Amino acid sequence: MADARPSRFPAVATYSICACDLEAGQWGVATQSKFLAVGSVVPWALPHVGAVATQSYANPRYGPDGLRLLREGCTAEEAVARLTAADDDREQRQLGIVDAAGRGATYTGSGCHAWAGGRAGEGYAAQGNILVSAATVDALVSTFLATPGRPLSERLLDCLAAAQAAGGDRRGQQSAALLVVERDGGYAGLSDTLVDLRVDDHERPIEELRRLHRLHDALFGKTAEEDWITVDEALRAEITERLAAVGHASLEDWAAEENLEERVTGTDRIDPVVLAALRETP
Known about the structure:
The protein is α+β, with helices and mostly antiparallel strands. The chain is built from 8 helices and 12 strands.
């Protein structure tokens, strides 16, 4: 487990938060770094198993190996202890884990570049290295704890923004990522990946990540059934006219072309997001 030698690889100077929403059955990781494509290294998660963030002179094997340990019944704390104990370069590593029960654990080796540290509690593990100060990690935690009841993906995005406002990575910004998993919660109910968005190289990666999340939510999100609009005679005529104007005979055909097919079910009621998009179509 000691293959990723610190002398050969740059540090993933990063702040991240692993977290879960047990009621929603969701686990996720959000991260930002002055490092190209941080989402390809740091975040790992499986529904009803847990979430892992591996960083600093990152050992990418901590991701799959950590999830395996959690699946085998280890707590977050036990998984952290076993991963780091087996790694000769543990003092350069940083690691956060949240397990299936929502227990959090974090580890920062003594060789991580200052400021480096983390905090963990019920439902979260937050950590960072090469930070301006401890305020970055404190902001991750305080924002997460202050936003119960909101969707996990939105909470994690808010955590990143608050951490950046508190100082963030002292080298600056470059990339950010958001990963949230839920059993059968992804595309067409056939994937466990609810959200997997990455900004690999951008001057303001958190803002770009939030923009991508808004687009993702518009295309793949779900509107509560009580908020759907009944299609009466007048609205049906409007929909038919608008579809004809853009060369479509049915709402399903148009929605498939616009990547909104996940939001169309039948013709008697319409998702307000779909109706708004149709009305905005030139």
